Amino acid sequence: MSRFSLSEIAIDPDIEKQALDDAGAGACVIFEGWVRNHNDGRSVNHLDYQAYAPLALSEGEAILNEALSRFKLREASAVHRTGSLAIGDMAVWVGVSADHRDAAYDASRWIIDEIKLRVPIWKNEHYADGESGWLHPDNTPVHCSA
Amino acid sequence: MSRFSLSEIAIDPDIEKQALDDAGAGACVIFEGWVRNHNDGRSVNHLDYQAYAPLALSEGEAILNEALSRFKLREASAVHRTGSLAIGDMAVWVGVSADHRDAAYDASRWIIDEIKLRVPIWKNEHYADGESGWLHPDNTPVHCSA
Amino acid sequence: MKLRLLYFASLADHAGRAEESIETSASDPAVLYAEVRERHGFSLGLERVRVAVNGQIVPSSHLLNDGDEIVFLPPVSGG
Amino acid sequence: MKLRLLYFASLADHAGRAEESIETSASDPAVLYAEVRERHGFSLGLERVRVAVNGQIVPSSHLLNDGDEIVFLPPVSGG
Hints:
The complex is a heterotetramer, with 2 copies of chain A and 2 copies of chain C. By secondary structure, chain A is α+β, with helices and mostly antiparallel strands. Chain A has helices spanning 13-17, 53-70, 101-118; strands at 4-7, 27-34, 38-39, 42-51, 73-81, 83-86, 90-98, 121-127, 132-134. Chain A is 28% helix and 38% strand. In chain A, a hairpin with a 4-residue loop joins strand 8 (121-127) and strand 9. Chain A is elongated and about 50 Å long. By secondary structure, chain C is of the alpha+beta class. Chain C contains 2 helices and 5 strands; from the N terminus they run βαβαβββ. The B-C interface holds B 33, 49-52, 54-56, 58-59, 80, 91-92, 112, 115-124, 134-137, 139, 142-146 and C 6, 8-10, 12-14, 41-44, 52, 55-57, 71, 73-79.
């Protein structure tokens, strides 16, 4: 069963969470990334996520499996949106369950950091002033034209 | 509006999460404490939570308000169960929203640690061998009789 | 004076009750705890319990008044 | 040999397309990137892009074969 997925439609956190169930788990940490109405001082209207799907899926899967071996977890699961998102929409969902909360927090943070670092997904922000632009990992704009 | 509550019935995380909505929020971290089927090497059947409600509510509220001033959050909310819980039931739900994930993770962890430290709620575990016992904060049993 | 005490968790088990009203001359929670500890055989020392009077955490030297509601809080285990 | 290239994000904008098939003698992705960078005016240097061949991340010195699918990955911004 795959632990990482891409979704072209709204993420349903209740369905995603079912993958974390385990009678031995005492702690569950969930991270959700939401589309903000602002970035780097600019007003954002909506955004698009583009993924190189085959590699995104294999990198995401590798991250979750590595988390399961690095941290004392019961389960780990994540899903990332693609396509067009509005303010408040969920862009990414990361869930882990563990016996104890130390491992759950550490793993959750590690997974989202690795997703942002490694998974081939790109965010294109559309600003209130009508401009748009692809972003670097640190959320600064890509100035690719001279 | 109160940010901390006690519930005698099952916590509904979808309802709780509505308190976190904010168009400026880009990160949401949720912690859920679930009833484990084991503790300290013993098999657990179910457990009871007892609260000194007036003080639990004011301490919980103080913790969430303190989190909002300590960390750069948009919203923070928490609810703790009382009464009898079965394996897999949600004992506590803690949610925060923030512009960035650093603050969201730090605040979430701080809030659950403070709840476990300060809020007058006690857990009585019922073991598979028929015994039961109140627990200390570190989940070791209270040996209150000689 | 007359005070109302609430007991929780292991203290309630030891006292065999969740609350009681008592007549006492104890001037502060420290003296009061020694009194009820002896009566009910509590094993927890005063240094392990926090004291709430009328829903507020107070020092064990807090001055008690007639009609106060006192709770000795054993170490908590929520979450 | 014939190769298929996919472009994403800012590279797709610059190339004005999401994919193209090209005839090239470039033996590895480093040489190939220099070729397409010049043609499309990519501003990102090779040190800023990762290379995927047939869905796997590879070093820029990876030996290319006829029919390979190559993706130059600009810095990602998911999450």
